[in-house]
Amino acid sequence: MAKRKSGALLTLIRIDRVGGAPLSRQIEEPLRSAILAGSLPGGTRLPSSRALAADLGVSRQTVVQVLESLAAEGFLEMRRGSGTFVAATIPQHLPQRLASPAGATAASAVSGLGRRFAATGIGYDPAESRPFLPNSPAYDRFPFALWQKYVTRQGRQAWRGAMSYGDPAGYAPLRRAIAEYLALHRSDACDPEQIVITAGGHAAFMIATLLLTDPGDGLLFEDPGPLVARKLFESLGRRLVHVPVDDEGMVLAEAEGSGARMAFVMPSRQHPMGRSMSLVRRLQLLDWANAGDAWILEDDYDSEFRYTGRPLPSIRSIDGGGRVIYVGTFSKALFPALRLGYLVLPPGLVGMFRNAMALMFRSAPLASQMALAGFIADGHFTSHLRRMRELYAERRQAFLDVAGRCGGSFRVEIPDSGMNAIAWLADGRDDREAARRAAGAGVHGYALADYCARPYPRQGLLLGFTGVAPHQLAPGLEALARVLSRGA
Predict the structure, then answer these.
(1) Are residue 229 and residue 288 in the same domain, yes or no?
(2) Is the pTM higher than 0.70?
(3) CA 319, CA 184: separation in Å to the nearest integer?
């Protein structure tokens, strides 16, 4: 019986011993994809690790490592004395599953899942299934089954508080979990009472801007800078002072005499350029805020994904004057539809922000807060981040390797942190036109010009690499090279 089941799994797993990925990954990805696609339904018993190792021609230790990893993510259940089974709690909110054809690889199974996300639009922006779209996490590697356990657990809570609006500042256990995470992994200790949970990062930007500035007030904004945030501040009636950025971050000298009351900055990983703000510039910004009784709205964007050394400390962690409002989210570390972010506030602002939250939003969705609190407290958030950093580092290097073989129609730059690369175009090429033509070839990048308030001296395309499946990488970059070459 075990032999028959093991033989069925062999149609899903293809081992490439010459230049392939690590053996554990070649086994793990097809199994995960088959579970997501429904080819291995909940409750299916897998063959023993010994039998599977023998049939695949790999060590039993390698197979055990794979099974334990999938069990940690919630895809498998390892029952002592009974064997290993596909988890019975695979989320019911996944889009309708289609069985993978015999012999389907991990890549094709994930590709099919992505197409179903795009077709149904259930819980996801269809755009997020487009290859090379910037800022897209690897959705296929999120531990859906494990997350569902926490969603189900909080749904069973019998106490009335789980059905009410909740504390306007947010669910207390979640605030404690975030404070512990920041202290351990961002070297930024704070009291949980300084934290206010919001419905995502843009809700945090909006409430901070409304409370701390008035219509017509100047707001320092990096140029190039994030388009949606720029539109948000403009819609609130703030006067944007566009400040250029260089390799060290915002060039504050360019903002002299602006009279701005707030600065919006992304010091850990500036978007779209990907640079990190130097310590000298951070201290200059703090001096500017203290001297002018101004505020710094710090968006700690993508701080989790740094590939050389530890994540950089936040500006808030060196703020001695209480001028920094820190914003963090879970959109890229987990998934955007979660819609949870948070503010870390100077103590003197906490009461004002709590009252404003009660009036404007009541509270962020309590059920999601409860599930996330348990997910973080039990160590799954940090484990997931560690796995994603390793995966994204591999995809980053693969992106560089393939791009280097694609000729001279573009030159790729990938910073040492973040989720995106910049493909710099040859002089004279219009990046908006290049983005339109690339999309027609299946490469969905953004023109750098879209992020600029003033003309930028170079033309480029912003391309995401973290959400690109391995089978999409070479065909996509080769297609980009072809369309750019035709436009030379």
Answers:
(1) yes
(2) yes
(3) 18
Can you list the alpha helix ranges (DSSP code H) found in 39-155? Answer: 49-56, 60-73, 106-120, 144-155
Query: At 113, which CATH number?
Result: 1.10.10.10
Count of domains for the chain: 3
Which residues constitute the domain of residue 451?
390-486
CATH number for position 223: 3.40.640.10
Structure tokens given for 168: 């306007």
Is residue 72 located within the same domain as residue 199? no
Measured over the CA atoms of residue 241, residue 290, residue 280 and residue 210, the dihedral's sign is negative
Looking at the structure, tell me whether residues 374 and 478 fall in a common domain: no
Co-location of 479 and 435 in the same domain: yes
User: In a structure prediction context, what are the per-residue pLDDT tens digits for the chain, which is 488 residues long?
Assistant: 344 445 566 677 878 776 566 788 788 878 877 777 777 888 888 888 888 888 888 899 888 888 887 876 667 888 888 889 888 765 443 433 333 333 333 333 333 323 322 333 333 344 445 789 999 999 888 898 898 888 888 766 645 555 566 788 999 999 999 999 888 877 788 999 999 999 989 999 999 999 999 999 999 999 999 999 999 999 999 999 999 999 999 999 999 889 999 999 999 889 999 988 988 999 999 999 999 999 999 998 877 888 887 767 789 988 989 999 999 999 888 888 888 999 999 999 999 999 999 888 887 888 889 999 999 999 999 999 999 999 999 999 999 999 988 877 899 999 888 899 999 998 778 999 999 999 988 899 999 999 999 999 899 999 999 999 888 899 999 999 998 887 54
φ, ψ dihedrals at 383, nearest 5°: -65, -45
Taking the C-alpha atoms of residue 417 and residue 261, their distance in angstroms, rounded to an integer, is: 29
Give the side-chain half-sphere CA count within 13 A for 159: 8
234 residue type, one letter: E
User: Does residue 232 sit in the same domain as residue 356?
Assistant: yes
Closest among 228, 233, 43, 205 to 125, alpha carbons compared: 228
CA–CA dist 19, 267 (Å, integer) = 38
Check whether residue 293 and residue 334 sit in a common domain: yes
Per-residue CA distances from 399 to 149, 225, 365, 451 (Å): 34, 24, 37, 23
> Quick one: 173 and 286 in the same domain?
yes
